[in-house]
Amino acid sequence: GMGVLRITEAEIVQYRDVRFVDRADGSLNVTDVNGALVSVVEPGQGGFIRGVMRGRARERRLDGQGAELPFRIARHADGRITLEDLATGVRVVLNSFGPTNAEAFARLLPR
Question: Which of 16, 40, 101, 106 could form a disulfide with 97 if both were Cys (CB 3.0 to 4.6 A apart)?
């Protein structure tokens, strides 16, 4: 086991599965899996969310995946906020980008 890093995964205490849909006016709709509107990211706003989701969309295209499966935003018992691509299995720890950026996604969790 030398050279192997093992991280214990903290329990998920809150999550929401969402889809991000570009609109013709440049805004970004965030909907839950039932199609209910969670949030609208207006043009010129939400730069971190837009950047992360652009990267995830590119990864999906390269992996031959479509937009059918949602993304899971989760809050863990240890305070971490993660974004998991349920199509590719890739999980991003959003706290790595600073508290303000993690909070941008945390605001999309259920109240």
Answer: 101
